[in-house]
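re: that chain from earlier
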Amino acid sequence: RGVSAHSAALLLAGINVLSIGARIVSGRWSDHVHTRLRPIRQIGVALTAATAIVAAATDAPLALLVPALVVAGCLSMAWNGLAIAAAAETASGGRVGAAIGLQQTLLGILVAGVPPLFAVVAGSSWRLAFALAALGPAIGALALAWVPEPSRLRVQTRGTSAMPPAAR
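^ sequence. v structure.
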């Protein structure tokens, strides 16, 4: 598209800075609705739509494509903290570390495998690469539909902590 490496780097930096706010907003939202899974699913649906818009706009003017990339990029990072919190909150019997470890391992496998596949596909078609990328959050949202929604988050009483005393 003729965008300089400097401009592309500024765009990625901007997406990362805005994603800080997206993670905070999604965390506050999930606290407000007393669940992590519903916001994760809704972010997944929105991310699917945003990434599909990027796929459709790959040949559109940059004035249309860049905002779509920003929205999709921010949404792609907004869910991560919620996933860690959900794994911790749903773990039972002192298995929080194992739950987070499994969740992060599975995520790490995807993070290691998907970008090279995206690059291979993008080498022939950016539109196809982004269209396929839109399937990931859709599959995630559908998979989470099978996970039971906790009825209420565990609420800490004032002066208590989920951390053991030795870790404080």
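The chain has a mean pLDDT of 88.
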